[in-house]
Design goal:
One of its GO terms (molecular function) is diaminopimelate decarboxylase activity. It contains ten helices and 20 strands. The chain is α/β, with parallel strands linked by helices and 417 residues long. The protein is elongated, with a radius of gyration of 22 Å. The structure holds pyridoxal-5'-phosphate.
């Protein structure tokens, strides 16, 4: 739990109030916590980097709207995310558009709307974008996404350093980039790398940024490119499981600061941007589910809840994890007198499949029917990264807590009941 949300009573008061007013299963997002996390990022890295928020991590429209006053840029990865961002009031000029399989219709909409930059991931995409820009009589600013040939150990998800769908492999850059540079209706204004994410290892993050700086320097020299923007995919991870330690941003800044200073001096006209999603929103969100039934089965106490992997796939261990491990979770209590004996519980969702399991042998105060369970680190890759329609249970509500006030910001309205 973050230091700012470690006041259990205050936290549980909001979680219980959200469940009571809007129902469960519920995602509850604390906007003030997102703001505090952003402050932390700016304090540690603000002298080098602006911050770009990856919409994929949580595209809730109300959050995107709130972010307008806080974030520098957005990165979208589909025409759908681009439309959501525009509807939330974002000026397309502040949006970059990544994604390895951009379709013609998405490129056309983005170019027509004056997207800030297309982040090109292939020659195919560059030619298509050039043809569309030519038709519209425009020159479209682009960044080129590069895939380095190595990613240090310690990233939960690796997008380069091996065969990968993402970006132009650095080995092919000398061949492909000049061809993109020659397209008359595109203007290369910079480069982009997102090669790994969910790292809790400060050294791995620093090593990865060193690789980025090397790749950016080499590529700019080879292309004679004077970049206006260089995007660093942060890779910053968050603790999900008991015992994991949050990153110390100040220590990262301390370790790599001198190198970033030198890099910035080498590219004085380039805006350096840190692109990230989960670091900002993940720990600011909780998934609240209610115990529907408790079963004592062959020595195990099983709490069966109204939301499971259908709502929170990641917590069930089925979103890119090799092994399921319990997320941090707690029973939502209203006051200290709720304290009672702690027992191991298995936590199941409502689905008729044995993989719908949110916890195994979790030590929790005794759960009974009607109790609320809060799963932590649920602010990123939640509802939109889950198979919401599987077995047709109600969709989760989404609640934003801002200045102590609760607001229903549910995006995905479905059948309830
Ligand atoms: C291009 C790109 N940008 C940003 C992100 C966001 O990553 P995270 O939410 O882990 O910060 C990803 C994650 O896969 C990505 O592929």
């Amino acid at each position: 739990m973050s230091p700012r949300l470690d006041n259990h009573l205050a936290l549980d008061h909001h979680l219980a109030a959200a469940a009571q007013r809007f129902g469960t299963p519920a995602y509850v997002y604390f906007a003030d916590e997102i703001a505090a996390r952003l402050d932390g990022l700016r304090q540690a890295f603000g002298r080098w980097f602006a911050v770009s928020y990856a919409v994929k991590s949580n595209p809730n429209p109300a959050l995107l709207g709130w972010m307008r006053a806080h974030l520098d840029y957005l990165d979208v990865s589909s025409g759908g995310e681009f439309a959501l961002s525009q509807q939330a009031g974002w000026d397309p000029a502040w949006i970059s558009f990544t994604g390895p399989a951009k379709r013609e219709v998405e490129l056309r909409r983005a170019i027509t709307a004056n997207v800030g930059e297309l982040v090109l991931e292939s020659l195919r995409e560059a030619r298509l974008a050039d043809a569309i820009a030519a038709e519209l009589g425009r020159v479209q600013p682009v960044l080129i996404r590069l895939a380095p040939d190595r990613v240090p150990k310690g990233f939960g998800d690796q997008m380069a350093g091996r065969p990968s769908a993402f970006g132009v492999d650095v080995e092919d850059a000398a061949d492909i980039l000049p061809q993109i540079a020659a397209l008359p209706h595109l203007r290369i204004i910079g480069l982009h790398i997102y090669s790994g994410t969910q790292s809790l290892k400060a050294d791995a993050i620093c090593d990865n940024w060193r690789i980025f700086m090397q790749v950016f320097s080499d590529t700019c020299a080879a292309l004679d490119l004077h970049p206006e923007k260089l995007i660093f995919g942060s890779g910053l991870g968050i603790p999900y499981h008991p015992g994991e330690q949050a990153l110390d941003l100040a220590a990262i800044a301390q370790t790599i600061g001198a190198e970033l200073d030198a890099f910035k001096a080498r590219f004085p006209d380039a805006r350096l941007v840190l692109e990230l999603g989960r670091y900002l929103v993940g720990p600011a969100g909780y998934f609240v589910t209610q115990v529907v039934s408790v079963k004592q089965s062959r020595g195990s106490r099983i709490a069966i809840c109204d939301g499971g992997l259908n709502n929170n796939l990641a917590a069930s261990g089925n979103f890119g994890m090799v092994l399921r491990r319990n997320y941090v979770m707690h029973r939502v209590d209203r006051d200290p007198s709720d304290a009672c004996e702690t027992l191991p519980h298995d936590i199941s969702g409502p689905l008729c499949t044995s993989i719908d399991k949110l916890g195994g042998a979790v030590a929790l105060p005794r759960l009974d029917e009607g109790d609320l369970l809060a799963i932590h680190a649920a602010g990123a890759y939640g509802p939109t990264a889950s198979p919401l329609h599987f077995i047709s249970h109600p969709l989760p509500v989404e609640v934003m807590v801002l200045g102590g006030q609760l607001q229903d910001i549910t995006r995905l309205l479905g059948e309830t009941g």
